[in-house]
Specification:
14 strands; DNA Primase, Chain A; 10 helices; Dna Topoisomerase Vi A Subunit, Chain: A, domain 2; single chain; 3 domains; four-stranded antiparallel beta sheet; 328 residues; 32% helix; six-stranded antiparallel beta sheet; alpha+beta
Amino acid sequence: MISTKNVIRFQDVPTIWIFENYLNLTEQLDGQQIKIKSVFKTEKTPSMIIYMDAATMTYKFKDFSSGYQGDSISLVQYMCGIKDRGEVSYKIVNDYVKYLDDHKPYKAPEIKTYENYKVTDYTIRHWSNFDQKYWGQYHIGSKMLEIYNVSALEYYKMTRLELNGTTSEIIITGLNLYGYFKKDGTLYKIYQPKNMNKKFLKLGNHIQGSQQLSLTVDYLVITSSLKDIMAFNKLGFKDIECIAPDSENTMIKEQNINKLKEKYKKICVLFDNDEAGINSMKKYKERYNLDFIILDMEKDVSDSIKVHGIEKVKKEVLKLLNESLYER
């Protein structure tokens, strides 16, 4: 009898099987994108995405709660704590052989081309007292929102083409819907803070706050979000400007960082003080040699201002800036 183990190589193991097996998925992957709860951290709201990478036509994952992302080998690598990718591949082959010994041969499904929902329409509405109450708790007023091209939305519509040729539409309405726009009027992100499943809907790449930079002050702070940019500005540091990437898990490109280094005396990073935020700041330190500061108050700058007020937060931030940003 020929051992199955002797004839199976890693490239013979279906990538889909790896994701389905190690994540114990309840539905078979056939090209669709799914969201599940993180396997790396305990969470109430699913934030781990399993998706088909269009460039390679293989499944990959991105876990927003831990910051982990990558291919099928990376998934097992992180789950099992194995550093060497070759060792991970060997484990996957062994596990697949055991699966084949206990089951019928695995039949990979036919991959279908699913269309993602895309925002195709929206309507801007006037600001209301409800908006004032929401943004006011962070001391962010209408003038600041106008500077950063934030508008309140009445609704937005999402459409997609189904496999049977029909078009599906979803219309999203609510009191807390906000559009983030570039100066040319392009909508690049939708912010819906009351939606625990999808606070942000990214529509395009944009370094947030970049169009508002004067490039005439000495220092730059990279924050985690546009809301933190606006909240940080309320602290009143006249020698500091701020930008933010699309998210903490999205690194600003090296060419952009190098250009910014030419414009400012020094740059530092101030992300959320949770594990994911700290890990992201460490990546900026390792890749770009940018110092980072950890504000040990609430999760981020805006929440700290909400809970403790501007003056107390400014005092704590100044201590951190004196240690890492301001030249001695």
